[in-house]
Amino acid sequence: MSTEARKPPPQIALKIRRILGGKAGWNGVAVQFAFAAILGWIGYEIVSNARANLENQHIAAGFGFLRNNAGFDVNQTLISYTGSDTFLRVFVVGLLNTLVVSVVGIFFATVIGFIVALCRLSPNWLLSRVGEIYVEVIRNLPLLFQILFWYLAVLAALPNPRQSISLFGIAFISNRGLVVPSPIGQSGLAPFLAVLAFGIVASLALHFYARRALFQRGQVIRIWPSVLALLFGLPLATMLVFGLPFTFELPQLRGFNFAGGSRIIPEFVALAVALSTYTAAFIAEIVRAGILSVHKGQMEAGSSLGLSRGATLRLIVVPQAMRVIVPPLTNQYLNLTKNSSLAVAIGYPDLVSVFAGTSLSQTGQAIEIIAMTMGVYLLISLLTSAIMSVYGWRVSRSLGA
Amino acid sequence: MSDVISSSFVRQDLLAERPAPVKTTGFIGLMRTRLFNSPTNILLTILGALLLWFTIVPSVKFLMVDAVWSGKDRAACLAENAGFAVGACWPYIQAKLPQLIYGFYPEAERWRVNLTLLLAVVLLLPLLIPRLPAKSLNAGLFFVAFPVVAFFLLHGGGIKGFGLSWTAGLLQLFDESIVGAGQALLTSSKTSAVGPLLWVLGSLIALLGTVIHWLIFPLTWLRDYIQGTGQSVWTDFAITAAIVCLIAFVLGGGVRTGGRALASSIATFVAIAIVIKLMDIDHGGLPVVTTNLWGGLLVTLVVSVTGIVTSLPIGIALALGRRSTIPLIRIFSIAFIEFWRGVPLITVLFFATYMLPLFLPGNFTVDGLVRALIGIALFTGAYQAENVRGGLAAIPRGQSEAAAALGLSWWKTTSLIVLPQALRHVIPNLVNSFISLFKDTSLVSIVALFDLLGSLRASFADPKWSTPSTAFTGFAFAGIIYFMFCFGMSRYSLFVEHRLNAHRRN
Lengths: 401, 506
Known about the structure:
The structure holds 2 protein chains of 2 kinds. By secondary structure, chain A is of the alpha+beta class. Chain A has 2 domains: 45 residues; 246 residues, MetI-like fold, CATH 1.10.3720. Chain A has a 4-stranded antiparallel beta sheet, with helices on one face. Chain A has a two-stranded antiparallel sheet with strand order 4-5. In chain A, strands 6-7 form a two-stranded antiparallel ribbon. The radius of gyration of chain A is 29 Å and the shape is globular. By secondary structure, chain B is mainly alpha-helical. Among the domains of chain B are: 29 residues, no CATH class; 187 residues, MetI-like (MetI-like fold, Orthogonal Bundle), CATH 1.10.3720.10; 121 residues, no CATH class. In chain B, 73% of the residues lie in helices and 0% in strands.
């Protein structure tokens, strides 16, 4: 008598029920129908009301307005822009301005944040208190308050260009913004850039080669002298052969304002300062938590293996701390990018300010413009979270291996 | 044996006294161990002291030493009149204080704002102290009753009907919309390629609308009849109270166990009646103060408290929806949460201000403050949903399985077993969200509402007080207010966290 394992019954009906209605079964299906009906009703109401309202206001729906002339000026543009350009170009100009202030803010926020975190972790009592005061004060004041403070109080209190504060005679700070020397490309620029790019690529390749050698053959290759030569020696040599890559045009006071040099508008300065100091307080807390999350035993184990303190930090503590730090850090970078939309309060021409602000009031195309603006930010954050989930997957894989 | 004895050693004299160990406690110990124990540390200490010296000393000098404390207008705060480099100009704050707190709220009516604030404090304080009893009653009063009372206190105005009329009105609106949709489909069926299909669909929807119309006819008839009588509010109130009490009695278990539900619902209605009578809501209530007159700290507090009260239910619903196994509801919740979390608040406020009015029927205007409140509630709700979801995930499966084994339904499992534990877990996170909400309320000043920051900015424009130090003084004052609120909340969150983790300490 042979006893074969019986196949379980297929239970197709049960599976369908589970897929369609979840654990609640047919009740779940009914709930979904009711929910879909309500959503459909709300959607219908929104569309029909919007259509009627737009008709009353004589606004044509659609994205055709993007090809119309904007007819207003923007006081900071990265690409050439005049008042006779289209709204589409306004959109791009605003987006680029948003990205610029975000990147600058992210850079300084990271630097300040790490410094403050080191202060807070320092064994020195006074310095850690100073770091704590910074974090508490900055975190408990609204960002908009800080932006307005920098813009309306601090920058407005600066002297006019004639009495501007000079930084070593190179850059000048006044209530019209920051004037810095502007680089002017010379004949040596192209070879210089090419050599620099080559140096960077070659150093990266060397780095990967050295790591491979270390991990696969256990061979230690000292690469820093050659990296130094590639990154600094080679460009210097090119400079000697082809001449200076660029010269700086120094700003000079002419009449009531500066001539020459490039001017960074005060709105940008205020926004960048406020964003980076504000986000730095949050980054400091993240970095501190990350470093504290590494167990003390790791440090002790490193030193018992004979590693120096620096090597232990670099090879053992920081890589483990990074795992904790990176996801919330990315979140903060994303927050900074989203917070840069507060530019509209002080008139820095970012995406929200020039597109959802000025363009909206000129065209009245509220639905299209706000949907586009929201879409941009949504895209940025969804992309970031996608990258972060890939990162998290890799980290969990490397932990599991 | 003698060998052993002679090799043993017994000390004959006392050891010399050793010096006392270096003191490691107290101020001296702190100096020795944490401030001046190595050259690097000495350098760092000097650096820290310098940092403090260049921030604290000028601030104190500005706020206290060099400050001008009294005066009539800007002349008092000018350096040439005061005779020294003027710091903070406090008379400016004194002059602008009513505007910074009440906005343009009429002076004669400001007692209403004060009373509302007092009510809020009286209800909130016992809620925050864990040792005090009757938390659920207190929470119900603060989260449900207080917003309604505060609305009638701050805004004023009265009501013409009560529950019955409102239900009838709402159902009628819904019915009209359904009939409208059916008619629209019928008219478009004449031109469309799939005309017959649309016609059938339209007829069905129109038929549904007619059926609903006849179903709710008794209700609408009763409403119209009550409106015809003189005492419409009180008749309506009595009928609503009777119906609700009856429903509570039946749902509570009828004659056997329904007494408690009946008593509590009767008590609720008596309380509502007292409030209506006291504030004269049935006869038009207090004089109406439109929201464009509100301003200053009042708007900041109204926006943040409304945000807190409305975002929590939204967040709980979305969090439960995101954990639901029903596909459509889960997908909708995820999309909703991720959408609002992915966009900056300022675009949400733009959305609420410029786009929302387009979505509403043309004859239906929404107040500017309410629009901003809707945007903030949706935005914060999405963030709260993630907090609540964290709490829900922290509850072991065994809890809901045990509840299921006892025969509790999903609703009872969720509301009696899972949610109370989950919410307790995430109180610190919720409070942290409230801190960021409180800070974010400052953004409403961008959409032309005058909250504390907006009023402050408006007051800078007054030529009567324009001095070099006006802006700094204003920011110092507003900063102190914001800091007090946020710092207080963050300390409270730490306190609750400490309390919740009491079992982990040893």
